Amino acid sequence: MKFNEQVTRIEPSPLRAFNDMAHKEGAELFLTLGEPDFHTPQQVKDACGVALENNKTFYAPTMGVAELRREISAFEKQLNGVDYDENEIMITTGSTEAIMSALFAVVNEGDEVIVPVPAFSMYKPVIELCKGRYVELNTAPDNFQITEKALASVVSDKTKAIILTSPNNPTGTILDEKSLLNVYEQVKKRDMFVICDECYNQLVYNERRPGFVRFQDLREKIVYCQSFSKPYAMTGWRLGYMMASKEFIEQAFKVHQYTTVCANTFIQYAAIEALRFDPAPFVEEYRKRRDYCYDRLVAMGLDVVKPEGAFYIMPNISKFGMSSMEFCTRLVKECKVAVIPGVCFSAEGYMRIGYCVSMDTIVKALDRLEKFVAGLEKKCA
Ligand SMILES: Cc1ncc(COP(=O)(O)O)c(C=O)c1O
Fold this sequence. Notes:
The chain has helices at 5-9, 14-24, 42-53, 66-80, 94-106, 123-129, 148-152, 177-189, 246-260, 265-275, 280-299, 324-335, 359-380; strands at residues 29-30, 89-92, 112-117, 133-138, 159-165, 193-197, 222-227, 240-244, 312-313, 337-338, 340-341, 351-354. The protein is of the alpha/beta class.
């Protein structure tokens, strides 16, 4: 039996596969998945109960519940200073589905999609499912920022889109003004889209600055994908949204309609409450963990960029002369500590530590990592 070529060619998530392997190997400390360890705020759970009591159990409109879309419109105006009305906001099953619908809406066979790497692992397989070409822009030599030169070296007449993930998974970096302007200059003169994946944009440690979406003179080229998963500790609820011009939504709508019909109805009502929740207490807790991780990694002699958002940190481990897979597999087997190899994010020579776990787990894991690294350094010397 022959299956669809595009589907057979792609692999299941390498990140999940590594995590499963670590479980099988009996790892004890997991800093692997990108999932807040907090519970969903009580007011959101209560609103969900009320929605169920009120029998909000029928199909929702494909675009999503109008009340929620209006709330999002007001919320985005306040957060990013942008004006998108309810017909320019589509509720999706997590931001995963928003990103997927966006890519399916724009990529033709042979089209190139630029992905600054290190990058979240879903982009490549989805681009390939669309028969597009995944084009890496390596940001590692530039502190994970996008330089004019690096961008110019990857754009071409076939460029259809660029994906901007800020704050970034796996590095925690926020694209600075220069990076955004470099992208702006290219996009202004080309026929290309910008897919803004900003699911961590409320989890930031310095003053919040609107991302690429603020360039509203390029409105028809921008698609903004957002999630309830990370800011409100709602990963299992599976809710997100896409915000874009009416023309863009009109196309993405069809992909969304034929994949999901609509996002879960009663969860959309609960999400209205989520928008009223201020995630500042979560951010403060992540900040403590970020500071602790950063200081410990620096003290171990690892080269690391201080994250400005999200809940990941990505030290360079290339000096140990082994692949990131080998390093992380040994860390699992010898120390029972699981972190994700950089290769899962197109970032060989790095590992991703997720600090969205308890401080106790972080302290124990970093103690063991410190010993592991010291042992390797002795051998290298
Ligand atoms: C950068 C980025 N985008 C999108 C997602 C997808 O999140 P969700 O589908 O839960 O909204 C994730 C999840 O880890 C992520 O890290």
